[in-house]
Amino acid sequence: MNYLFDLIDSKISDPDKTFIETDSGAKISYRQMLSASARYANALVAAGVEPGDRVAVQMEKSPAVLFIYLACLRAGAIFLPLNTAYTPHEVGYFLGDARPKVFVCDPAWAEAHAPAAKEAGALILAHGAGMEGELFERAKASAENFVNVARDKDDLAAILYTSGTTGRSKGAMLSHDNLASNTITLVDYWRFTSDDILIHALPVYHTHGLFVATNCVLLSNARMIFLPKFSAPQVLKTLPRATVLMGVPTFYTRLLEEPGLTREACKAMRLFVSGSAPLLAETHRAFREKTGHAILERYGMTETNMNTSNPYDGDRIAGTVGFPLPGVSLRVVDPDTGEDVSNGEIGMIEVKGPNVFRGYWQMPEKTAAEFRADEFFITGDLGRIDGDGYVHIVGRGKDLIISGGLNIYPKEVEGEIDALPGVVESAVIGLPDADFGEAVVAVVVREKGASLSEDDIRTALAGRLAKFKQPKRIQFVDALPRNTMGKVQKNVLRESYAKI
Ligand code: AMP
């Protein structure tokens, strides 16, 4: 038995039903999904992929990414998606850390990635979103049947890298059951049925679009309209044909700017879900006013899948992330003493359940440091539980920046800036931004007499950091504010620059 894929297969009550409809109107049925994933599985196995091997993928969004994910499940391999914005420098780290057997990337990027792939011992197989490249050709020539490799609930299905607060990114290991159990819960909690049509406008290298959205569709034999990226006018045009939208808060603020967003436009819709970053209560209110729909906000993370959700039937309270999902234990503890303060005080959110990951890839010490003795995972998020049981996220333990739903760890950006000639030090902070939630801002101290300009820093970072991590503004100061312990006071910086 193959734990997750058998479950997906068992839910296909009608193989001729459309699984994916692309923005050009092409339809891919569940039967075609089965044969495509078998072809990719055959091609990967022929390329030497064995059970437990990693298959890294950095591809523009296309249905093929999902077929390769499913092929990995079937072949017992571990799917490792990478953000398309990562530079060859960043990809080099992931390949070196994960040592995948195969690295699938866009044909246009293959040359730039070749040295890192060679160093890591990975075979590059190119695949373009327009259905071209070596892997596409190999899959096309492969058989459309595949005998699934046996996988148990605890075997790994995927590794998703999260950014590291101290140093490098960590690979969160997710098992077949982490994904299966969470999806079964969500399908039930959010009332998915085979009549649903989900608008898929999220990236597929992140847990939200890859697992939450796609797996909910798969496990309910539903359909999705697969858009290459989020565009408010395109989503607005699609709403009358769809029933569910899953998005980050930016989707909703952008949709609210569209004059065509009306009750009439949302008549066919039954559910709007938001997550990955805090949704402003103001956005929730304005959306309800215009559409009659209360956005359902939920809370999760790469390491844990989904932890909490506002209710389907009960009150969806703006500014809260709802209740712990069935099967998930959530508590709030004093981060210093570990004492349970779930009675309303603010503290560190900790979770336990079948949704919680198996640890960080090849980092047993990091893993051990983030779990309590009773197996609760320390999320790093600060929050509280109110008298009605709703969970509120009040902030992030560390200084994580979330811009457009993507996490940016200041330390990584600071490291790149500090390495530039003429820089003494820097502090990177997130400032409120109506569009992205938060915008990355760097505060830099130059060496005396250094002529380094804002443009010089921008140019230097362009080849080193993904675009979403690059500072939107750079400010120069003579010195960073520090407390008596010598720690940089980022709160002071945030206050001083709040209005730039
Ligand atoms: P990621 O691993 O990229 O999914 O990021 C997970 C982090 O995003 C969490 O640890 C939270 O800090 C944040 N997050 C996710 N959903 C919400 C939400 N609904 N409200 C506030 N923060 C959220």
TrEMBL record:
Keyword Ligase: yes
One GO MF term attached to the UniProt entry: medium-chain fatty acid-CoA ligase activity
Known catalytic reactions: 3-(methylsulfanyl)propanoate + ATP + CoA = 3-(methylsulfanyl)propanoyl-CoA + AMP + diphosphate
Sequence similarity: Belongs to the ATP-dependent AMP-binding enzyme family.
Keywords associated with the record: Ligase
Ranges for domain AMP-binding enzyme C-terminal: 412-487
Top-level EC class: ligase
Organism: Rhodoblastus acidophilus
Highest taxon above the source species: Bacteria
Regions that span the bilayer: none
E.C. number: 6.2.1.44
Domain AMP-dependent synthetase/ligase stretches: 14-361
InterPro entries in alphabetical order: AMP-bd_C, AMP-bd_C_sf, AMP-binding_CS, AMP-dep_synth/lig_dom, ANL_N_sf
Record-level GO BP terms: fatty acid metabolic process
Protein name: 3-methylmercaptopropionyl-CoA ligase
Entry annotated with the keyword Ligase: yes
